[in-house]
C-alpha cells in the first residue's frame, strides 16, 4: 500500500473506529491476503471512476439548473424543439453516452482481470478443510491423505500464513455463507450442493468471519474465527488438535467428566478420547483453547461458560442447545473439566 | 388560450364533485355517476375513486413499513441492545421488506397510473374498471392478512425473499412463511390484473390523434412496466405456489434430498425479483420526465431516445437476475454474463439522465416543490446506480453481497429513484386529485428533512458493509466497532420519519385549506390538465382529440371535440393501436358491488388454502358464483345497450 | 341529462362517434386484448413450470428418477379429443361472427360435451402417472404442469357453460357474440398449451 492509499484508509478509518485487534479483524479495505487484495484493487478503481462520474453528472445538473433562466408557470412554454432539431444538445448527450459506454467497458475489463487473478491462486500444497454450516455454528474437519490425521473442530480455524487453504463448503440444514472480509469474498454453503472457497492469509492475525446469509434466529451470532499463524506454530496446533483430550487429572475434573457423560451433553457433543460422540453440536475436544463460546456469542471464560451451560437461551435465544439445570457443585466441576480441554 | 390559469384562479373554480348530491350527479353525468353514500364507495367503478383509495392505502402501508424500520433502527442504534429479540426482529425486517416491495412500492406506482393514465391519454375511464375495483380489494385484504399475522406473532420471518430451505417445511415452522407466500398470491393477482388494464387502456383508449409518438413519456413508462409485470410476476406466483405446495402437501421442489434444489427457489424468485425493482423504478422515471418538462417549460429533450431507453431497460431487466446469486456455486462463466448485463443496463438509464439534464439546462426553470424532489432524485439515484455498478462486478460483490453496503445501495436506488419522484408526483398531481395545492413552504421543509435524513441514515451503511456488517442481524457486539455509524444511521432514520409526518400534515391541512388550484396550476401540457380539478365522473365532457405531443402547449394541440358518445349508458371511444383513429364505441359497466364480493370470496379461498388444500376445491365454488354474478348482465342493462347498439 | 360545459367544449367537433359500431370482433375489441393478456400471463406460468421440470431433470441422474414415465394412452387420447374439439370451437367462433344465435348455441353445447370428455380423460391421466406429487421432485414437477393445465381445462369449460346458458336467455345483445368469439380464442390457447406439455410429460422422458 502506498502512502496516499494508507492516508485514505486512515480517513475512512477515522470515520468509524476499526475493530480492536483482540476481537478479530473484519475490514474488506484492509486485505491480508491475495484474494482480498485483488478485490481491494478493483474497489479502488471502481471507487475512483464512480466518484468522478458522480461529480461530473451531479455537477452538470446543478450547474445547469443554476445557470438556466427562470420561468413562470403562467408564461407559455417553449415548444420550438418540437419543430426543430437541437444538434448541440444531441451531440452533448451523445458524447456523454459514449463516454459512459467506454468507462463501463473499462470497468468490465477490470472485473474480468480481477476474476482471472482470483482464479489463479496457486493451490499446490493447499490445506484442505471441510466446513459444514449448521444453525448457528460452524463444523470444521481438517482433511489429510492419512485418515488418522483427520480431526474436527468448531467455530475457530487455524491456518498457516502463506499457505493456500481450500475450503470445501456444505450445509446441513439451511443456506449459510462464509465470509472473512480481510481474506476473501464470501461463498454460500447450500444444502445439497458442495462449493469451494480458496484463500490465503499472508499476514498473521486473528480474522473474524461471520455467516453472511440469513439462516434463522441466531444468524447474528454465528461467528467463525480464523487464526493465521506462522507454519511452525500452525503445525503445533494441528498436532495438538489431532490428539485426544487428556484424561481428567483431579477429583473435581473427574467429577466434571462424569457430569458431562451422564447429562444430555454427550448426546450432542463429542470429546475425542471419551465415549461422548454426539455429532449434532460443536466438537468440544479442545474447546478451552477457543476465543469464544457459542460461535462468537460469549468470551471463553469460566463464568461465561457456566452461564452458557445453565441457559444458553439467555445469551443466544433460539439456539438449539437447551438449558441445563445443574446443581452448583456439578456445574463448577463440569466447567473445571471443560477448561482442561485445551 | 394555452396559458395556464394561475394558482389563485380567476377562471372556473373546480368543484369537489363528491359533495354534490347523488341525484344531481346522476342528472349531470348519467351513468358515470356513483351511487350515493357508503354503497356508492363500495361499488364504484370510477378509476379516479379507486385510484385515490389505492394511493392512500399504499401510502398507509408505506407508513406502516416505515414504523417497522424505525423499530429496527431503534434496536440497531446501540450494540448488544436488548430492546428487540431475534424472533421479533426477524419478523420486523421480513414484514418491512415485504410491505415496502409488495404493498407499497409496486402498488403505489400502479395506483398512480390507475388514476393518471386514463386522464393523460384522454380516456373517460380505465379499461375493465370493475377489475380495478377487484384488484384494489384483493390487495387490501392481502395486506390486512399479513399485518394480522404479524400482530398475532405468526408473521413471516424468513426475509422478504424467503429463501428455501429456511422457509421450507422443515425449517420454516408453523404458518409464518405460508402467510408470506399467500400475500404474494394476493398482490400478484392484483398487480397482474392492473397491468392488463393499463396496457389495454394505453393501446386502445387513447384520444383520437394520439399516435405513438404523441404518447406522454409517463404513459410509455407505464406501458413498459405493465409488460414487464406480465412476464415477471408469474415467476414469483409459480415460486410461491410451489413453496406452499412443499409446505402443505409434501412436494419436493426445493428439497435436495428428493431431487429438488434450494437454488431453484432463488432462480424463480429473482427472475421476478430483478424486474420487480424496475416496476418500481421505471414509473419513477416517468414522473421525472413529466415534472422536468413542466418545470423547465419545454418539451423533454430526446423523446425518442427516452422511449427506446425505456423499452431497452424493460428487456434487459430480465437478463440480470443471477447477480443476486453471485455467492452461490452457479457456474463462473455464467456469472460474467450477468456482470456484463448488469453494467449494460446502466446505459439506457444514463441516456435518460443526460436527456433530462439537457432539458433543464435549456429550459426556463420554475422552482416548485415537485422539482426539488426531482433534484433529490438525481443526487441520490445516481449514487445508488454507481454502487450498483460496483455490485455488478463479481469479485467486489463477493465482499459486499449480503452486507449493509447492499442495504445502502437498494435504498439509494429505490428511495432516490422511486420515492423521491413519487413525492414530487404527489406535490404535482395533488391539485388535480383534490382541487387544492399543497403548501409550498411545508413542501420545502418536507424535502430538505427527507433529503438530509435519507443521506444521514443510509450513507454510513456503505462503510458498515465494507467493515464486515452483514444484513439481517438483530444485534452486534460492541467490539466490532459498528456502534457509532449505526447510531448516526438511526438518527437519520428518525429524521426521515419526521419528514413523512410533515408530509401528512401538509396533506391534511391543504386538503381543506390549500390554495385553489384551478384547472391547470402548473401550466402543464398533458391532457389531465385539460379538465377540471378534480375531474368529474367521466373525465372529459366532451372528450377531446389531439394533434400534438404537448396538446396544451402547442397551437392547435387540441384538434377538437368528440361528439356522439352517450353518458347513459356510459360510452368510451376505442381507437386503433398505432394511429389512434376511431374504431368503435364501447359501453362501459356502471357501479356494481360484485367486484367486492368476488374479492371477499377469493380472500376466503386464498387464506383457507394456507391451512388445507381442500380449500382450493371448496373455496373455488363461491369464487365461481361471484364471478358469474359479476358477468351476468341485468335485463335493464341489456335493454339499454340494445338501444344504442350499432353492429360492426 | 346534459353534461356540463367544461374546458374546450367550445372547440369544433372533429369526430362524431354516434354512427360507429358499439362493439367489435377480434383485435379491435378490448376484450380480445384482455384475453391476450391473460394468455401471456398463463403462458408464462406454463413456460416456467416447464423450465422447472427441465431444471430438476438437469440435476437428476436418471429420468424419470426411480419410476416409469407416465403411461401414454390417456394423455394421447386427450391430445386427440382436444385437437378435435377445435372443430366445434371454430364453428362457434364463425357462427358468432355471423350473429347466428342458433349456431352459437349448438357450437357451445358441442364444445361443452367435448369439455366433459377431456376432463374425464384427464382424471384418468392422473391415475396412470406412475408417481405422486410427494414421491420426489420429478413427481412434483409433473403434477405442477398437469395440474396447471387441468385448472385451465376446468375454467375454460366453466366459462363456456356460463356463456352457453346466457345464450339461451333473453339477455343477449350484440357484444355477447363478441364474447363468444373471444371464448373461442381462449379455447384455442388451452388446446395449444397442451401440445408442448404433452410432449414434455409423455414423450421427452422416453425420447431424450
What brief labels describe this structure?
heterotrimer; A: 342 residues; alpha+beta; Immunoglobulin-like; 5-stranded mixed β-sheet; 3-stranded mixed β-sheet; 10 helices; 13 strands; 40% helix; elongated; disordered N terminus; C: 208 residues; mainly alpha; Four Helix Bundle (Hemerythrin (Met), subunit A); 5 helices
Q: What's the SSE blueprint?
A:
The complex is a heterotrimer of chains A (342), B (648) and C (208).
Chain A: H1 3-15, H2 34-67, E1 69-70, H3 80-83, H4 87-119, E2 127-134, E3 137-142, E4 151-154, E5 156-160, E6 165-171, E7 176-178, E8 187-189, E9 195-199, E10 205-210, E11 223-229, H5 231-242, H6 251-262, H7 265-268, E12 292-293, E13 298-299, H8 302-310, H9 312-315, H10 328-339
Parallel strand pairs in A: 2-6, 5-11
Antiparallel strand pairs in A: 2-3, 3-4, 6-9, 7-8, 10-11, 12-13
Chain B: H1 22-29, H2 37-43, H3 47-76, H4 86-120, H5 129-151, H6 176-204, H7 217-249, H8 262-296, H9 303-316, H10 332-344, H11 346-361, E1 364-365, H12 369-392, H13 394-400, H14 404-434, H15 440-466, H16 483-513, E2 544-546, E3 558-563, E4 571-575, E5 582-587, H17 594-611, H18 614-631, H19 635-643
Antiparallel strand pairs in B: 2-3, 4-5
Helix pairs in contact in B: 3-4, 3-5, 3-16, 4-5, 4-6, 4-8, 5-6, 5-17, 6-7, 6-17, 7-8, 7-9, 8-11, 8-12, 8-14, 9-11, 12-14, 12-15, 14-15, 15-16, 17-18
Chain C: E1 13-16, H1 30-58, H2 72-97, H3 101-127, H4 137-167, H5 174-207
Helix pairs in contact in C: 1-4, 1-5, 2-3, 2-5, 3-4, 4-5
Question: How would you describe the overall organization of this protein?
Answer:
The complex is a heterotrimer of chains A (342), B (648) and C (208). Chain A is of the alpha+beta class and 342 residues long. Chain A has a domain at 3-14 and 244-339: Immunoglobulin-like, CATH 2.60.40.420. In chain A, 40% of the residues lie in helices and 18% in strands. Chain A is built from 10 helices and 13 strands. In chain A, the strands form 4 sheets. Chain A has a 5-stranded mixed β-sheet, with no helix packed on it. Chain A has a 3-stranded mixed β-sheet with strand order 5-11-10, with helices on one face. In chain A, helix 2 runs antiparallel to helix 4 and helix 8 (302-310) crosses helix 10 (328-339). The longest helix of chain A has 34 residues, at 34-67. Chain A is elongated and about 100 Å long. Chain B has helices at 22-29, 37-43, 47-76, 86-120, 129-151, 176-204, 217-249, 262-296, 303-316, 332-344, 346-361, 369-392, 394-400, 404-434, 440-466, 483-513, 594-611, 614-631, 635-643; strands at 364-365, 544-546, 558-563, 571-575, 582-587. In chain B, helix 12 (369-392) packs parallel to helix 15 (440-466). In chain B, the strands form 2 sheets. Chain B has a two-stranded antiparallel ribbon with strand order 2-3. A two-stranded antiparallel sheet of chain B has the order 4-5. Chain B is globular and about 75 Å long. Chain B is mainly alpha-helical. Chain B has a single domain, classed as Cytochrome C Oxidase, Chain A (Up-down Bundle), CATH 1.20.210. Chain C has a single domain (32-207), classed as Cytochrome c oxidase, subunit III, four-helix bundle (Four Helix Bundle (Hemerythrin (Met), subunit A)), CATH 1.20.120.80. The model of chain C has no long low-confidence stretch (mean pLDDT 95). Chain C has helices at 30-58, 72-97, 101-127, 137-167, 174-207; one strand at residues 13-16. Helix content of chain C is 71%, strand content 2%. The chains are: A alpha+beta (342), B mainly alpha (648), C mainly alpha (208). Chains in contact: A-B, B-C. Chains A and B meet through helix 2, strand 1 and helix 4 of A and helix 4, helix 8, helix 10, helix 11 and strand 1 of B.
Amino acid at each position: 500500500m502506498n502512502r496516499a492509499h494508507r492516508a485514505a484508509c486512515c480517513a475512512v478509518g477515522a470515520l468509524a473506529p476499526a475493530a480492536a485487534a483482540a476481537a478479530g479483524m473484519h475490514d474488506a479495505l484492509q486485505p491480508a491476503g491475495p484474494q482480498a487484495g485483488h478485490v481491494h484493487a478493483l474497489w479502488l478503481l471502481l471507487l475512483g471512476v464512480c466518484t468522478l462520474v458522480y461529480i461530473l453528472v451531479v455537477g452538470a445538473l446543478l450547474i445547469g439548473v443554476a445557470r438556466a433562466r427562470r420561468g413562470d408557470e403562467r408564461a407559455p412554454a417553449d415548444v420550438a424543439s418540437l419543430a426543430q432539431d437541437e444538434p448541440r444538445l444531441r451531440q452533448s448527450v451523445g458524447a456523454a453516452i459514449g463516454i459512459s459506454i467506454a468507462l463501463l467497458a473499462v470497468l468490465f475489463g477490470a472485473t474480468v482481470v480481477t476474476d482471472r487473478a482470483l482464479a489463479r491462486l496457486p493451490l499446490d500444497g493447499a490445506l484442505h478443510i471441510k466446513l459444514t454450516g449448521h444453525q448457528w455454528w460452524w463444523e470444521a474437519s481438517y482433511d489429510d491423505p492419512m485418515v488418522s490425521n483427520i480431526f474436527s473442530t468448531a467455530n475457530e480455524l487455524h491456518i498457516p500464513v502463506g499457505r493456500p487453504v481450500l475450503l470445501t463448503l456444505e450445509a446441513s440444514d439451511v443456506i449459510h455463507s462464509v465470509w472473512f472480509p480481510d481474506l476473501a469474498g464470501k461463498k454460500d454453503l447450500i444444502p445439497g450442493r458442495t462449493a469451494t472457497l480458496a484463500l490465503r492469509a499472508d499476514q498473521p492475525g486473528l480474522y473474524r468471519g461471520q455467516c453472511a446469509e440469513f439462516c434463522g434466529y441466531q444468524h447474528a451470532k454465528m461467528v467463525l474465527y480464523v487464526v493465521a499463524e506462522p507454519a511452525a506454530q500452525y503445525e503445533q496446533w494441528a498436532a495438538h488438535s489431532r490428539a485426544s483430550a487428556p484424561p481428567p487429572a483431579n477429583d473435581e475434573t473427574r467429577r466434571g467428566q462424569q457430569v458431562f457423560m451422564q447429562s444430555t451433553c454427550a448426546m450432542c457433543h463429542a470429546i475425542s478420547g471419551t465415549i461422548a460422540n454426539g455429532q449434532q453440536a460443536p466438537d468440544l475436544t479442545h474447546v478451552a483453547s477457543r476465543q469464544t463460546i457459542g460461535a462468537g456469542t460469549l468470551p471463553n471464560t469460566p463464568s461465561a461458560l457456566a452461564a452458557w451451560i445453565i441457559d444458553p437461551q439467555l445469551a443466544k435465544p433460539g439456539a438449539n442447545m437447551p438449558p441445563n439445570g445443574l446443581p452448583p457443585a456439578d456445574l463448577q466441576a463440569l466447567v473445571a473439566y471443560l477448561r482442561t480441554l485445551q | 388560450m394555452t396559458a395556464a390559469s394561475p394558482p389563485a384562479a380567476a377562471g372556473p373554480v373546480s368543484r369537489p364533485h363528491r359533495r354534490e348530491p347523488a341525484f344531481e350527479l346522476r342528472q349531470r353525468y348519467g351513468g358515470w355517476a356513483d351511487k350515493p353514500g357508503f354503497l356508492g364507495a363500495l361499488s364504484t367503478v370510477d378509476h379516479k375513486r379507486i385510484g385515490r383509495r389505492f394511493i392512500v392505502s399504499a401510502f398507509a402501508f408505506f407508513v406502516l413499513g416505515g414504523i417497522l424500520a424505525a423499530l429496527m433502527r431503534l434496536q440497531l442504534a446501540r450494540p448488544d441492545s436488548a430492546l428487540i429479540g431475534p424472533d421479533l426482529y426477524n419478523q420486523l425486517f421480513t414484514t418491512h421488506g415485504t410491505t415496502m416491495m409488495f404493498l407499497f412500492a409496486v402498488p403505489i406506482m400502479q395506483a398512480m397510473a390507475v388514476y393518471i393514465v386514463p386522464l393523460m391519454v384522454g380516456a373517460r375511464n380505465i379499461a375493465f374498471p370493475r377489475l380495478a375495483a377487484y384488484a384494489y380489494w384483493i390487495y387490501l385484504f392481502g395486506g390486512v392478512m399479513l399485518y394480522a399475522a404479524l400482530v398475532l406473532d405468526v408473521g413471516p420471518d424468513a426475509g422478504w425473499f424467503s429463501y428455501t430451505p429456511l422457509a421450507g417445511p422443515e425449517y420454516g415452522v408453523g404458518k409464518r412463511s405460508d402467510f408470506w407466500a399467500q400475500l404474494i398470491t394476493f398482490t400478484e393477482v392484483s398487480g397482474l390484473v392492473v397491468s392488463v388494464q393499463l396496457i389495454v387502456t394505453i393501446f386502445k383508449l387513447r384520444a383520437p390523434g394520439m399516435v405513438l409518438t404523441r404518447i406522454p413519456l409517463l404513459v410509455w413508462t407505464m406501458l413498459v412496466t405493465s409488460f414487464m409485470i406480465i412476464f415477471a410476476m408469474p415467476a414469483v406466483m409459480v415460486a410461491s405456489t410451489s413453496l406452499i405446495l412443499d409446505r402443505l402437501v409434501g412436494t419436493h421442489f426445493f428439497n435436495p434430498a428428493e431431487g429438488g434444489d434450494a437454488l431453484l427457489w432463488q432462480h424463480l424468485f429473482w427472475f421476478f425479483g430483478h424486474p420487480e425493482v424496475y416496476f418500481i423504478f421505471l414509473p419513477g422515471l416517468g414522473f421525472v420526465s413529466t415534472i422536468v418538462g413542466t418545470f423547465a417549460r419545454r418539451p423533454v429533450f430526446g423523446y425518442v431516445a427516452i422511449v427506446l431507453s425505456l423499452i431497452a431497460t424493460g428487456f434487459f431487466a430480465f437478463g440480470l437476475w443471477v447477480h443476486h446469486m453471485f455467492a452461490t456455486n452457479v457456474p463462473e462463466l455464467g456469472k460474467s454474463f450477468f456482470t456484463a448485463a448488469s453494467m449494460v443496463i446502466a446505459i439506457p438509464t444514463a441516456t435518460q439522465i443526460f436527456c433530462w439534464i439537457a432539458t433543464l439546462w435549456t429550459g426556463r426553470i420554475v422552482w416548485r416543490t415537485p422539482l426539488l424532489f426531482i433534484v433529490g432524485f438525481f443526487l441520490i439515484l445516481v449514487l445508488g446506480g454507481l454502487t450498483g455498478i460496483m455490485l455488478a462486478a463479481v469479485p467486489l460483490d463477493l465482499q459486499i453481497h449480503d452486507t449493509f453496503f447492499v442495504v445502502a445501495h437498494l435504498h439509494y436506488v429505490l428511495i432516490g429513484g422511486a420515492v423521491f419522484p413519487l413525492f414530487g408526483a404527489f406535490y404535482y398531481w395533488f391539485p388535480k386529485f383534490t382541487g387544492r395545492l399543497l403548501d409550498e413552504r411545508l413542501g420545502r421543509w418536507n424535502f430538505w428533512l427527507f433529503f438530509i435524513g435519507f443521506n444521514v441514515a443510509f450513507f454510513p451503511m456503505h462503510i458498515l458493509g465494507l467493515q464486515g456488517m452483514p444484513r439481517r442481524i438483530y444485534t452486534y457486539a460492541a467490539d466490532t466497532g459498528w456502534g457509532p455509524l449505526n447510531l448516526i444511521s438511526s438518527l437519520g432514520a428518525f429524521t426521515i420519519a419526521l419528514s413523512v409526518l410533515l408530509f401528512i400534515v401538509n396533506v391534511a391541512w391543504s386538503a381543506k385549506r390549500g390554495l385553489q388550484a384551478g384547472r391547470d396550476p402548473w401550466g402543464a401540457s398533458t391532457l389531465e390538465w385539460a379538465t377540471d380539478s378534480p375531474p368529474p365522473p367521466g373525465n372529459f365532457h366532451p372528450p377531446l382529440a389531439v394533434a400534438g405531443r404537448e396538446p396544451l402547449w402547442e397551437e392547435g394541440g387540441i384538434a377538437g371535440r368528440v361528439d356522439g358518445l352517450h353518458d347513459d349508458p356510459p360510452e368510451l371511444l376505442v381507437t386503433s393501436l398505432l394511429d389512434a383513429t376511431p374504431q368503435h364505441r364501447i359501453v362501459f359497466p356502471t357501479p356494481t358491488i360484485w367486484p367486492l364480493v368476488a374479492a371477499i370470496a377469493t380472500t376466503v379461498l386464498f387464506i383457507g388454502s394456507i391451512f388445507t388444500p381442500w380449500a382450493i376445491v371448496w373455496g373455488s365454488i363461491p369464487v365461481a358464483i361471484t364471478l358469474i354474478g359479476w358477468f351476468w348482465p341485468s335485463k335493464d342493462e341489456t335493454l339499454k345497450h340494445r338501444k344504442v347498439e350499432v353492429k360492426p | 341529462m346534459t353534461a356540463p360545459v367544461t374546458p374546450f367544449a367550445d372547440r369544433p367537433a372533429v369526430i362524431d362517434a354516434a354512427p360507429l359500431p358499439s362493439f367489435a370482433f377480434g383485435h379491435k375489441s378490448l376484450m380480445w386484448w384482455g384475453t391476450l393478456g391473460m394468455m401471456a400471463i398463463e403462458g408464462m406460468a406454463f413456460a416456467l413450470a416447464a423450465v422447472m421440470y427441465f431444471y430438476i431433470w438437469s440435476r437428476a441422474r436418471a429420468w424419470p428418477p426411480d419410476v416409469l414415465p407416465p403411461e401414454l394412452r390417456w394423455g394421447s387420447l386427450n391430445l386427440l379429443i382436444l385437437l378435435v374439439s377445435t372443430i366445434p370451437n371454430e364453428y362457434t367462433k364463425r357462427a358468432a361472427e355471423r350473429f347466428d344465435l342458433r349456431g352459437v348455441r349448438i357450437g357451445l353445447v358441442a364444445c361443452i360435451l367435448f369439455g366433459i370428455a377431456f376432463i374425464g380423460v384427464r382424471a384418468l391421466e392422473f391415475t396412470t402417472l406412475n408417481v405422486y406429487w410427494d414421491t420426489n421432485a420429478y413427481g412434483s414437477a409433473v403434477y405442477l404442469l398437469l395440474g396447471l393445465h387441468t385448472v385451465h381445462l376446468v375454467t375454460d369449460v366453466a366459462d363456456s357453460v356460463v356463456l352457453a346458458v346466457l345464450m339461451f336467455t333473453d339477455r343477449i345483445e350484440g357484444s355477447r357474440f363478441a364474447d363468444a368469439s373471444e371464448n373461442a380464442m381462449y379455447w384455442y390457447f388451452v388446446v395449444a398449451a397442451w401440445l408442448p406439455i404433452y410432449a414434455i410429460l409423455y414423450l421427452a422422458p422416453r425420447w431424450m
